[in-house]
Design brief:
Layout (H helix, E strand, L loop, with lengths): L3 H5 L2 H14 L1 H26 L4 H32 L8 H15 L1 H46 L1 H11 L8 H37 L4 H11 L5 H6 L1 H11 L3 H25 L8 H15 L1 H18 L6 H6 L7 H9 L2
Helix pairs in contact: 3-4, 3-6, 3-8, 3-14, 4-6, 4-9, 8-9, 8-12, 8-14, 11-12, 13-14
Length: about 350
């Protein structure tokens, strides 16, 4: 097992082992992988500040503060819009909310005694479980909000050590190329993610302007929400569009405003795919539509929403690395990556 091909030819075995690790190691891996992706995105900024003479710790701290400020501003805007939404829920007689309220009260009146008996007999035994689940969820959110920036800072600070350790862990003929392969993959991925952030901002702005023009309530909230949910390809936009469409119908009482919402979302998605994305981002990461959907749903089955967000960029990163490692070219072919560089040469040589 002295060559890269020989050492990596058993990639199906490694893939199965990786899936088992992902399934069993979620509590540890999810915050660590969020931190890894964030570190990859921040690496160009940190490296640029270091080249200008900044101390590494100061460069990392500055990059993290900028990210926290951006996230805080976005969450503040969303919280403001959600507050308006909760304070001014439509209350007209013909609204969906009032009809739903009447239906709930009607069902409760008819089944009040049976439900009350079930509720009072089951409640004492369920209170500890419900409170425990709630406290665990709150603690998990607080812990992740603290540990992810810490992991990110440590990954960035010790990045050269990790690269050297990885180079020492692969076959000897591959080791000298590890820094260059990782540098290429990280640069490509960071450029892609930076472009995608700009795409989400543009899409959110266009959605909000379109909803405002139609008179949709809470246009900014739903414009941003539908843009953010496009982080989950294909699936996110479908689910995030349901609420503004329903609210447009209940607030207007006609089908014209919901149709307008669908038209706005469709037009913005068309512009995003054919104009905004090619101009702002350029090259895609090379996963086929089928592979992307399979990865998204596999991530959801493994880790829920976190898996749907995390697994796709991680697989994309693996495909980027595979293009420069001959023994891993089957990985790129399985996931339908667009061939370039060494991968394209291999495809031409084999006639595929």
């Amino acid at each position: 097992m002295g060559t890269a091909d020989g050492g990596l030819r058993n990639w199906p075995v490694w893939a199965v082992a990786l899936l088992l690790l992902l399934a069993w190691g979620a509590p540890v891996l999810i915050p660590l992988l969020y931190a890894l992706l964030l570190a990859l995105v921040l690496h160009p900024m940190v490296a640029g500040l270091e080249r200008k003479g900044w101390p590494r710790s100061l460069a990392i701290g500055t990059a993290l503060l900028l990210v926290l400020a951006l996230v805080g501003a976005l969450l503040g805007l969303l919280a403001w819009q959600v507050g308006l939404f909760l304070d001014q829920l439509p209350a007209s007689e013909g609204s969906l909310w009032e009809r739903l309220d009447r239906w709930v009260h009607d069902v409760m009146d008819r089944h009040h005694e049976a439900w009350w008996y079930s509720f009072t007999t089951a409640l004492p035994g369920r209170i500890p479980a419900v409170l425990g689940s709630l406290l665990n969820g709150l603690f998990g959110m607080a812990f992740n909000a603290f540990i992810i920036p810490v992991y990110t800072a440590l990954l960035l600070y010790n990045r050269r050590h990790f690269v050297a350790a990885l180079a020492a862990s692969v076959p000897a003929d591959l080791a000298p190329r590890v820094p260059a392969i990782l540098a290429k993959a990280v640069t490509t991925y960071a450029r892609f993610i930076g472009g995608m952030v700009r795409v989400y901002l543009i899409v959110g702005l266009l959605n909000s302007v379109g909803f405002l023009a139609l008179g949709v309530p809470y246009a900014v909230l739903f414009g941003l929400l539908t843009a953010i949910m496009t982080m989950i390809p294909y699936v996110g936009i479908l689910f995030s569009s349901l609420l503004p469409i329903a609210l447009a119908y209940t607030s207007s009482g006609s089908m014209w405003m919901p149709l307008g919402v669908i038209a706005v979302l469709g037009a913005v998605q068309y512009l995003e795919a054919n104009l905004i994305f090619p101009k702002v981002v350029g090259e895609r990461l090379g996963l086929s539509t089928l592979a992307s959907l399979v990865v998204i749903f596999a991530g959801g089955a493994l880790w829920g929403v976190a898996g749907m967000i995390l697994l796709l960029p991680l697989v994309s990163l693996g495909v980027l690395v595979a293009e420069d490692v001959p023994a891993l070219l089957p990985l790129r072919r399985w996931f339908g990556g667009v061939p370039n560089g060494r991968a394209a040469a291999a495809d031409r040589a084999t006639g595929t």
